[in-house]
Amino acid sequence: MREVSKSFGTLRAVDGVSFHVNAGECLALLGPNGAGKTTTLSIVTGLITPDRGEVLIEGRRLAGDTDAIKSRMGLVPQELALFEDLSASDNLRFFGALYNLEAVTLKQRMAAALDLVGLGDRGQDKVKTFSGGMKRRLNLACALLHDPQLLLLDEPTVGVDPQSRNAIFDNIAALRARGKTVLYTTHYMEEVERLCDRVVIIDSGKVIADDTVTGLKNRATRACHLKIELANPDGATWLDELKTLAGVRSAGLNANELVVALDELATSAPTVLSFLTQRRQAFVHLQSERPNLESVFLELTGHNLRDK
Amino acid sequence: MNWRAFFALIRKDLTLHFNNRRAVIITIAVPIVIASFFGFIMGGASGEHKNTGVSVDVVDLDRGAATREITTNLLNDANLRVGVLGEAEARQAVVQGKVPVAVIFPKDFGDSAARAFFRPIEKPEIIVLQDPSRDVEASMVKGILMQHVMQAISKRAFSGDDGRKLMHESLDSLDGGAGLSDSDKQMLRELLTSAERWMTRAEASGATNSGPFGGGGMRLPYEVRSEKLTAKQETRYNGYAHSFAGMTMQFVLMAAIEFGVGILYERQRGLWRRLRAAPLSRGMLLGSRATSGALISLITLAICWGFAVIVFKVRIDGSWLGFIGCNVGIAVLAASIGLLLAAIGRTPEATRGIAIFAILMLVMLGGAWMPSFIFPQWLQKVTLVMPTRWAMDGLDGATWRGLGLGSALGAIAVLFGFAILLGAIAVARFRWEED
């Protein structure tokens, strides 16, 4: 994507976004809800025409609705894009037909897709009898029938139980092992850390960072978080003063939990604890955390991923 | 063109529709039931309305020979169901809506009416009490009443001792009568004298019912012969033909709402995004939708008409081509309406509410519930801009009116014209990008 922008009325949903995905790579678009991830994905698949900028797929622009290059892409929308009153097989047969798959090929691909997502024995059952996690897996299977090279997964684990989430992770890992390129939108840090090679952080329609997971973490190597559960914060009138202490990057209070970002744990933590003792703040529990993508996001954007 | 995708899109729509028990009941079973009911009350398969007569209560405060005779004749009239009550009960019956009309003969009505035949005196009144919502029945009763009153009063005026007495009174009063010229008085005297001589001669010969006002009173000077006219001699009106045309069209158009709203739901559920992500043209996506919508409508129409033909003996006595053309036109129109709703609707719920109102107006004013000829003249002209009115006229022509293809061509042209117009608006307004 090069300098792509898109507005809806006065809302600038995507603002000068640029990034690239290498073949065989898994790239995460990470950002809070409303950051512009889905709009970006829709622009890549040709569902939305950008106001400005261009999208190149395998080196060329998408040429209209029937461009054959669309057969090289498989979209897994955030919603469960399934016909609940049809069986799993009928859903797959339908989506396969959209890509003009011949009967024999379609039959083989249907069996393979159902096996991949662990629904091999549920093909004849109506989708409405499936659990949320099973529907999510079938949602993924429907995008695989035409064997696309580029998979576009729009928050594919929203609302699923941990077991199904792990199953979807395994499915994506298996697809990556086959050399598929994956563009994955999410607001879950752990998914990015587990699945993706590279991360593009998007916030308010703009790219904030574009790096490998390791590279992003290295940006915050000196920072760590101190989480202190207070017995009675009592209005926390001292919070602004705490933020001014040497070695304190930021501080926030969520109910009884005080989160303080520090330059150095060893030197700054005693300062903070001493400050709280002077203010007669008893603490019940104390915990420090190494830097992760969550803290990187906080540092880069000034707010948590799920603040919005 | 990816025909495999095209047929898959259509097959999917048909499968989803006919697997949906609720949709099938609403589009097929409900119109059959309602059309059967309406067809029955509109004359049924024989087309003969069983005349049960208009209910009317009679109050005879006169109790004279003339009003007794009028009451008896009303009781024997096949067009009426007469009850004889007191005044209070009759008024109560009309107020409560139990009878549409009650007739009150006041005291001395018979004598006063007979005198008023020959003299410019104040005429007695018959009081007709009527339910304000039932003007048609009241008018019918007044017409029938006039016939029986004229017969009974003229009989009283021109026969028997009472008649002779009335005539002498009239002759005596001529000399003192004001407002008449001498020549008019002379002519009236000659008329009354001639009438009296006629009465005397008729009574002497025993011919009590001969002459223009013999012993039976005045007679209607004509007979009525009714012909139920259709384009072909063997064609008979079948009430079910009109009701099935109307109800089937209504529910096909209702199904079009679900068809359009279904696309809006697909948008909400991300299905539309997934379809758009496939390498399919916009023409195919909308064209397949229109085709499946029209096919569902056609199948619905075929099943409902099949039921009407088999069970209620509805016949296509006019043009088969016209009949098929009208039904295809309705199906295509329904598909276009569905697309239009999908194009201009924002949320399924709001779209459904507004669309149901619009479709109900369209079918009601189109004459699907009741024939449009009972509308006021101005409204009949207004409804000519509605495709449903043309569809009903076309289908009536092709079925029980027995008309040829020429009479259906206008309807077919209007239906396809509207379908093309609405379809074009739908294509132009269709939101291809989600915001």
Strand order of the largest sheet of chain A: 7-8-9-3-10-11
- Adjacency order of strands in the biggest sheet of chain B: 2-1-3-4
Structural class computed from helices and strand pairing of chain A: alpha/beta
Secondary-structure element string of chain A: EEEHEEEEHHHEHEHEEHEHEEHEH
Which percent band covers the strand fraction of chain B? under 5%
Portion of residues in beta strands of chain A equals 25-35%
Largest interface: A-B, 36 and 29 residues
Itemize the secondary structure elements and their pairings.
The complex is a heterodimer of chains A (308) and B (435).
Chain A: E1 2-8, E2 11-17, E3 26-30, H1 37-44, E4 52-54, E5 56-57, E6 60-61, E7 73-76, H2 88-98, H3 103-116, H4 132-142, E8 150-154, H5 162-177, E9 181-186, H6 189-195, E10 198-203, E11 206-212, H7 213-218, E12 224-230, H8 239-243, E13 248-254, E14 257-262, H9 265-278, E15 283-289, H10 293-301
Parallel strand pairs in A: 3-9, 3-10, 7-8, 8-9
Antiparallel strand pairs in A: 1-2, 1-4, 5-6, 10-11, 12-14, 12-15, 13-14
Chain B: H1 3-19, H2 21-41, E1 54-60, H3 65-76, E2 80-84, H4 87-95, E3 101-105, H5 109-115, E4 127-130, H6 135-158, H7 160-176, H8 182-205, H9 239-268, H10 271-277, H11 282-312, H12 320-344, H13 348-365, H14 377-382, H15 387-398, H16 405-429
Parallel strand pairs in B: 1-2, 1-3
Antiparallel strand pairs in B: 3-4
Helix pairs in contact in B: 1-11, 2-9, 2-11, 3-6, 5-6, 6-7, 7-8, 9-11, 9-12, 9-13, 9-15, 11-12, 12-15, 12-16, 15-16
Characterization of the model:
The complex is a heterodimer of chains A (308) and B (435). Chain A is 33% helix and 26% strand. Chain A is built from ten helices and 15 strands. Chain A is elongated, with a radius of gyration of 23 Å. Chain A is of the alpha/beta class and 308 residues long. The model of chain A has no long low-confidence stretch (mean pLDDT 89). The two termini of chain A are 26 Å apart. Chain B is built from 16 helices and four strands. The relative contact order of chain B is 0.11. Chains A and B meet through α2 of A and α1 and α10 of B.
